[in-house]
Amino acid sequence: MSLHLPADNSPPRSLHSDGAAALFSGHGLRCIRGDRVVFSDLTFSCAAGEAILLLGRNGSGKSSLLRVMGGLVQAASGRLEWNGEAISADREAHGLRCRYIGHADAIKPVLTVAENIAFWVRLWAPEAVPTAAALTACVEHALDRFSMARLADVPGRFLSAGQKRRVNLARLFAAPGTLWLLDEPTTALDKASIAVLEQAIADHRAAGGVVVLSTHTDVILPDARIMYMEDFAPRLNAVDAQWLGDEGDTKPASAVEDDDLIGWDSLRGDH
């Protein structure tokens, strides 16, 4: 994986697939959280089997972009397309193809590990589990991928941070989807679990799946294309820049911290 650096002093404003037909794309996306523009004029395209790695400091818009891509947050402007068709025309279909794993651990404390995973299978892919036996098979397969079979009957409240993260990621195996949107998925994982995730991503891409991932740790992601979120920060003219510098209680959009995105995951119930 190589870093992309602009050839001149002007930052790139788009990220496109190299030659292959775009399966998933965004055009002129602009995101506003509260009264702040987080990113603007963001364009990308991703072909089947490709991966995009989102890089940027805290508050640069990585999490917001993943939520926009998943249809969980509405962009202020711009459009998303899947296979050339506007995602807004069939949001339900887009929801069925998306597998979004966010910061929050979507673990119900009173349910066992197996019951937590089964809940997500029934939500994401009910047609794949027409019988109780089929559901059990899906859950067992997911548990085996992360070596968690021994934890199947353990209630969520007793899990460590790393175990909760593995249960969250196990949803990807229990209910497969074409588009993986992973927000710092390696948080709290040990090296062995990271290796399992890396292999899962490689297998998913080989089967034609698309992955968009943000991370602050080293992840082996061969041939992934890099998207620097700072490239899409709103540009300020001299007057605006001076005003921002003079106002002690005002921050530019690029300085928005995670705490500014208050309670989004909790509102969705992903905990």
Search tags:
271 residues, alpha/beta, Rossmann fold, globular, disordered N terminus
Give an overview of the whole structure:
This protein is α/β, with parallel strands linked by helices and 271 residues long. It has helices at residues 62-69, 91-97, 113-124, 132-145, 161-174, 191-206, 238-246, 264-268; strands at 14-15, 22-33, 36-47, 51-55, 77-82, 85-86, 98-101, 179-183, 210-214, 225-228. The protein has one domain (14-258): Rossmann fold, CATH 3.40.50.300. It has a 5-stranded mixed β-sheet, with helices on one face. Helix 3 (113-124) packs across helix 4. Residues 1-12 and 246-271 have low confidence and may be disordered.
How are the secondary structure elements laid out?
Elements: E1 14-15, E2 22-33, E3 36-47, E4 51-55, H1 62-69, E5 77-82, E6 85-86, H2 91-97, E7 98-101, H3 113-124, H4 132-145, H5 161-174, E8 179-183, H6 191-206, E9 210-214, E10 225-228, H7 238-246, H8 264-268
Parallel strand pairs: 1-3, 4-9, 4-10, 7-8, 8-9
Antiparallel strand pairs: 2-3, 2-5, 5-6
Helix pairs in contact: 3-4, 3-5, 4-5
